[in-house]
Amino acid sequence: MMATTHVFAGLAVVAPIAYVVPEFAIALAAGAILGGLAPDLDLVFVHRRTFHFPVAGLGVAVPAVGVAVVAPSALTLAVAAFAVAAWLHAASDSIGGGPELDPWNERTERAVYDHVRGRWLRPRRWIRYDGAPEDAALGLALAGPALLAFDGPLPAVIVGGIGVSLLYAGCRRRLVAWTPDWLE
Ligand SMILES: [Zn+2]
């Protein structure tokens, strides 16, 4: 899935909470956005393994949410939003495709690494590849709740993210042809 889809998923989770406690909206949004993006920083290490915790991440997210419920503050809510969004990112990578650049020609069976069982999870390909039409549609649907719940500058950022998603999805299949061989 696209980075924007992961961010919108995190924002969709925190949107109802931000609606109820708007004084923590910025903390929730910051945690969700960073948590949605953070796992893919492992592109420079072993992508979808080093910073992706599809199973173990839940073991961090649940206590973080517990702390935020017991002692709500900007910090505890931001940490909880980060942990949930990062876990959701890693877990949802398993319903997408593999990390391959051109899923039309080449298929890998490694979606995301499960550190608990010590093995790769298989891509289920409900979303066939990042930037697929269904990826863009899912991103749009997930962006909806956040657009309603947040005010200030965030809706403009979300609309910008939707624009990037649509643009990327629109030229996703051509990107492969433009990519120099040494990058693949
Ligand atoms: Zn990922």
TrEMBL record:
Species of origin reads: Natrinema altunense (strain JCM 12890 / CGMCC 1.3731 / AJ2)
From what superkingdom does this record's organism come? Answer: Archaea
The residue ranges crossing the membrane are 55-88
Keywords from the UniProt entry = Membrane, Transmembrane, Transmembrane helix
**Taxonomy of the source species:** Archaea, Methanobacteriati, Methanobacteriota, Stenosarchaea group, Halobacteria
What this protein is called in its record is Metal-dependent hydrolase
